[in-house]
Fold this sequence. Notes:
CATH superfamily of the largest domain: P-loop containing nucleotide triphosphate hydrolases
Helix content: 40-55%
CATH class of the largest domain: Alpha Beta
Structural class: alpha/beta
Largest sheet: 6 strands, mixed
CATH topology of the largest domain: Rossmann fold
Low-confidence stretches: none
Number of domains: 2
Mean pLDDT: 90
Strand content: 15-25%
Number of strands: 18
Amino acid sequence: MVRLAEVNKVWELVYKRNYDHLIKSIELNGIGGINKVEFEKGIFAICGLNGAGKSTIISSLKDVLGIKTNTQDKKKINGNSIEAQVLSKSGDLLEVSNADEERLVNITGDDDSVYYLDYKLSLDALEFLEQDNLDELLEQYDENIIPSNQIQSLNYIIGKDYDEVKLIEIEDGSEIIPYFKVKTAQLEYNSLGMGIGEHFLFYIFWVFYRIKGTGIILIEEPETFISINSQQKLMNFIADYASKQGITVILASHSPYIIKKIKKENIIILSRYSNQVSIIKPSVNKDSLVSLGLELPKEGCIYVEDKIAELFLKTVLSRNCPHILRDYNIEYVEGHASITKRLMFPKSDKFTYKLIGLYDGDIREEIEEVKDKLSWEYSFLPTEMAIEMEFKKCLREKTDEFATSLGIDKSNLIHILTTINGEDHHDWFIELCRKSGKDKVILFEKLYELWVNDETNQTKTESFIKELMDICY
């Protein structure tokens, strides 16, 4: 059983340890619109909504590894060639394919190193057990008592309190069918008396329980029939096995709870639009969760001085790191003193919402004097003066370019700029919008384009983004 205090250490070990069996990459050669897919060691997730192509990749992996394929797998592959690079137990990087005698198990002769499981296998097992002569069949096999430490694992992932678990493994040709008998304080029942979700969890447990060495396991949609709580605990259980025994796990899922603890480098997101498929890696783990339809609570709030600063920040973020816009609220608070007041709110372990202050770049010295009073992190927008003044300065040098981008006559623009030149910088932008007849967001975008195209400003912006990313994450 994975103790709560050990969960993070278990997941860290998943990615730190070495693995004797490792899939480096697979080339599908356009099957289902998919070509090369690269993998990382440990637990790897193929994510995407229904129909994206997750099952196609899993079917292709089954074929090149030498795992028995079913009718649906064959329809997906449709006789096409597939190649893969696999690190074998001997440490050799093998070139394998789905051609006869070129699959991994044909080359290594190690049938017990590759496994596949999904909910259909669990249902097939239940269907097999629903036969009239089951009792006679069971009498031919020994009962195995599951050790107490393994029963604790079942209690953990399923959320029940089993006192005793017995396993009978039935041979059906080349297949092995597990049959479970369980006892709790109140009840005794067997596989046929279990709910579908409970039996699927037992089936997954059994596959891992049988593995005595290293290997590769492909798992398709482990979330099926399983509660959110059990999904998360199941993944901790899988991580524990993978980290201790060096088992490579590749799973396909569209559950955000299954992939919640998998690091972003070990996730790919499949998206399909018509007959086009994209395969991307998330920039942060939350990208994959959002892509699967999970609405996440905000990490915190970023405070800026005024509406112009809010526009500026949103423009910078939308072009460079839009996930910050997704993860954080942005709020303008009418002046730097209001930011400072909010950043004095004391931190607490129970208050997990993060507060961040972003001051205008012209008050660095003033904030330096009060920084010891601030409880939360802060930074400065990548400007040396108020944003409107930066834009005014930029316009003096790039009037022609700005007129062209706005689609207005240069003479008219010069006239407008002349009439508002003496305005307070806070009012200058408002008047420019009013007199040019342009929407403020569009006008701001054009001004920002002029400003950021300056090499010095571009460098400042890049440094600002890096610092803000460090603060946010």
